[in-house]
Design goal:
The protein is of the alpha+beta class. It folds into 2 domains: 5-99, no CATH class; 105-214, no CATH class. It is 23% helix and 27% strand. It contains 6 helices and 12 strands. The strands form 2 sheets. The protein has a 10-stranded antiparallel sheet. A hairpin with a 5-residue loop joins β9 and β10 (148-153). 30% of the residues are buried.
């Protein structure tokens, strides 16, 4: 499929995917301040690319809907992506995840953002447009209820499988980061084997990109 943008000549709205009112997106939306120091700019504003501004939308892919794509009703507050390009990456990944072309395998661990020299803290505090080492794309978003998340695409777009790392920070626990390693790589070995042994190419990519926290996630080392 293709990703399309539309402009409504009557309202001057910009719409994504479908030329319908509920698919309108907002460029440069008001940014929440509950996740940052009150005297500090929101990171999406601090690192804003003026030709690639933050985007807010309530667009979603619902596999049970007639043709998949749906959007929130009027008044629904959607997620804010750090940029238009991040929004497009999010929509592509969402579509691929929801249509379920290949089984998805996930490894998850909560890691304190201060361990290993504060590596995760540094990743979360730098520009949201900066991918992890070796990653082909990044998208950062913030949900209306304060959840902050980043997705770093470990694979290239032409690779035979998709692998990515996600960082989630919840509004009621800003100290710990939920680290998810997600892949469609076909598993090998036995079901009881560790995730890195069953998804060896994904583990190698994650080890390349996750720096000092890779042994914590992949090898079970103490933080």
């Amino acid at each position: 499929g293709t990703f399309e943008l539309f402009r409504d000549n009557t309202t001057n709205e910009i719409r994504a995917i479908r030329d319908e009112p509920e698919f309108a997106i907002t460029l440069n939306p008001p940014l929440p301040t509950n996740a940052v120091h009150p005297l500090q700019q929101h990171p999406f504003q601090q690192h804003m690319k003026h030709d690639d501004p933050p985007v807010q939308s309530a667009i979603w892919f619902d596999e049970e809907a007639e043709d998949g794509w749906t959007a929130g009703a009027a008044g629904v507050i959607g997620d804010i992506a750090a940029s238009m390009s991040a929004f497009i990456v999010a929509m592509i990944l969402l579509h691929h995840h929801k249509i379920g072309v290949l089984p998805i395998h996930i490894m998850h661990m909560d890691i304190d953002r201060s361990v290993r020299g504060g590596y995760l803290d540094g990743v979360l505090m730098r520009s949201p447009h900066t991918p992890l080492h070796g990653c082909s794309a990044v998208r950062a978003s913030e949900a209306a209820h304060g959840e902050v998340y980043q997705t770093h695409l470990l694979t290239a777009f032409e690779d035979p499988f998709i692998a990515l790392v996600e960082f989630w920070v919840l509004p009621d626990d800003r100290q710990n980061v939920s680290v998810l390693l997600v892949t469609t790589e076909q598993p090998v070995g036995s079901p009881g084997d560790p995730f890195p042994a069953r998804h060896q190419r994904t583990a190698a990519l994650a080890r390349r990109s996750l720096g000092p926290v890779a042994p914590v996630l992949l090898d079970g080392q103490a933080p």
